[in-house]
Amino acid sequence: MGSQAQKLLSEACRVAVNYLASYELNVSDAYLTMSFYYDEETEAPLYLPFFEDQIEVKKEHAKQFITYLREHRSKICLPVIKRPDIDNWGTGIQAIESALQLENTLNKLLQDLMNLASQNSETDLLNFLKKFLAKQKRNINYLEYQRSYQKELDRLTEKEVTPEKLGEASGKEA
């Protein structure tokens, strides 16, 4: 084709993009685990569709980072990232906070890479990363909202189930 070959990335940016692609796959795996854990519950939480959606979204992001590396004739070498040590995602709040932690870490990695690309005058990489940062902000805002909503639900549920009401339900006085 008539298009010019893309400029090679600096070594530091190449390593960071590889790490980011690997971390996106790690986050996808975490969402997969979370979605199957909660899919077995009788009443699925409101945020379950978000978790399920993010499985594919994060995989697609990883593919885009790998494609970017390939287009810039950069070595693709994804590091192994340890999975979260969580098999039981517990309460809704715990799952949301785990997802929020993953998304915040991903956001930090993106911002660090933006800074690195800026230092190395990698304007193509800076432009490429902008769309991912915007998506990260939306994901973080959504999860923060879900955490607040879940805390409020838990607080209201706690108010409804007082010792007096438990006694009334069982036919005993408290």
Q: What is the overall shape?
A: elongated
Class computed from helices, strands and strand pairing: mainly alpha
Rg value: 21 Å
SSE pattern, N- to C-terminal: HHHHH
What is the strand tally? 0
The biggest sheet, with number of strands, parallel, antiparallel or mixed sense and barrel status, is: none
Helix residue percentage: over 70%
| Strand fraction | under 5%
Low-confidence stretches: none
Query: Roughly how many Å apart are the termini?
Result: 81 Å
* Residue-averaged pLDDT: 84
Describe the structure.
With 174 residues, this protein is mostly helical. It contains five helices and no strands. α1 runs antiparallel to α2 (48-71), α1 runs antiparallel to α3 and α3 packs antiparallel against α4 (123-160).
